[in-house]
């Protein structure tokens, strides 16, 4: 059977190995598996969310409220914007998909950093669009500007991942705003703020406020997620914030019931759990320092991180070998070989988790 | 901002009104709202599923096992097929989306029954494809054949909804097989079996066996869902079964983590709850007869149904008016005016629910 041409250029996203797989493949006991590969929240699921999910268990047979009225209302209050400026996705991933299906096609292109979230490229390829990347792996706005000017006729979407996944670096807000000002109003600039809460906690110059974006620009889409700071990676829920015109266009591509009933319940509940968020931020910043100290002490290069993970760059050792050896001990980290880097991304865990990782890593250096 | 041309022809799917909306808009107390509009399972959520979901509540922060190993394994056993013949979607809706993005584009077309599941058309339009519909609202295979022959150069996907939603009629298996045999192997025939369990229980001639399809045809995609007989409408999970070649192509369009962790848990659990399924089928068939009897007694036309709903066709009354009046009493049914019919689709409920609906309806005739 023949399929559409675009399928020929598609590859699947390689996700972090799930715990279940390590149990199956390496016979490690489930309780001994430590997964610090997917930037999940090491504090676990908020207790308040757990309670709400248990209560919601009896309503799994009912379709979700597709208006998502309550969650949009809560997000409006949080960000001081209108519900009409919000779209909810099955993860912010899905909002990326909507945006690219709305703007890109085989005749235009996207512009992204040299090494950034893989789904930008994958979804763009679904539409047949071309991908332009900066030569520098990390975000370099001068290079973004240069390529943009050269390929102005083609570029219809620009992604800025602030802070950047999987590297961890973060642009300053003022530079981002200045850059957006230089971009044509018909080009959609997507600010992926999946980890922005972590950056903001470390350095207020990194904070991107969706309301600011709405007030200043008609062509910006801000992405937020419940998968990271809010600890709902398993629930697949995130959101996009933009002008009403953009939200209306994206909504045309949103299938009904794209988010599950328990996901809506969980997201609504975790927004109320401020202590959970605060504890997560504090643990992250404190524990991150241990990794930095370890790297310095052992002569490892690392990228100063504004996220809940840190990326170690290897010279002597091979990142694939290290990841493989750790995997057999039940420690799952993210090898960045697939991104063309001899590097490992490690999610910051709880104190005992980090101790275990650093001890195991030390033995392999 | 300009968007891709296809967006101009898109409209959103109108879902059944959620309970929350009736509570908000008409001030009906939540406990008094009766929703028989979305073909949800009136038996509620399986007790076994509820227990499993409560247990899973503590793991909402962990990304799902994207290999979906366990669920594919369970479905393989159920249908006596290989895991490689299965793709899991966020509802079978999403598998429809994958299939259309894989096969259709602005240069080809789909063929569907005059009145059938609206998402076929909506997703096809996302790709810019043309839509051919039979003149008869219900499935008429002669008409399908006629149009197929006339538009052979264009048609790349054919949908058969067996039984049909939102009308309820059902083709016989032998006629379906004969029809597929007459179709070119490069055309994808999609058999939507969302309600097939109900049809099979009523009349074994209607049973479509995915294994038969795999053995006989290389160009068929069977769709199943956990939203109906399995009572997991809120969990957004369904599946597609086809040749490995088709599954591989569709998998390229599947985003990672398209199904939530609790949805995988729930689906796996409900497959084990045979009693829940049996009770659902028995209640449905028994209660359906009350609606048929009511229709005959009151001179209402109806379509003999092989599903968990029944469609009443009105002559004297206006379906919109009736639905509106019932809504104010807290009864939500599905008005089919949007499908160009003066008709109402009613999900078969529990005995007390059906009694309430028929009593209220009687007063409006």
From TrEMBL, chains A, B:
It is an enzyme of class 2 (transferase). It catalyses: L-histidinol phosphate + 2-oxoglutarate = 3-(imidazol-4-yl)-2-oxopropyl phosphate + L-glutamate. Pfam families: Aminotran_1_2. Its cofactor is pyridoxal 5'-phosphate. InterPro entries: Aminotransferase_I/II_large (IPR004839), HisP_aminotrans (IPR005861), HistidinolP_aminotransfase (IPR050106), PyrdxlP-dep_Trfase (IPR015424), PyrdxlP-dep_Trfase_major (IPR015421), PyrdxlP-dep_Trfase_small (IPR015422). One of its GO terms (biological process) is L-histidine biosynthetic process. CDD domains: AAT_like (cd00609). Pathway: Amino-acid biosynthesis; L-histidine biosynthesis; L-histidine from 5-phospho-alpha-D-ribose 1-diphosphate: step 7/9. Residues 31-360 form the Aminotransferase class I/classII large domain. The modification N6-(pyridoxal phosphate)lysine is found at residue 228. Keywords: Amino-acid biosynthesis, Aminotransferase, Histidine biosynthesis, Pyridoxal phosphate, Transferase. One of its GO terms (molecular function) is histidinol-phosphate transaminase activity. The keyword RNA-binding does not apply. Its EC number is 2.6.1.9. Belongs to the class-II pyridoxal-phosphate-dependent aminotransferase family. Histidinol-phosphate aminotransferase subfamily. Homodimer. NCBIfam families: hisC. This is Histidinol-phosphate aminotransferase. It comes from Campylobacter geochelonis. The lineage of its organism: Bacteria, Pseudomonadati, Campylobacterota, Epsilonproteobacteria, Campylobacterales.
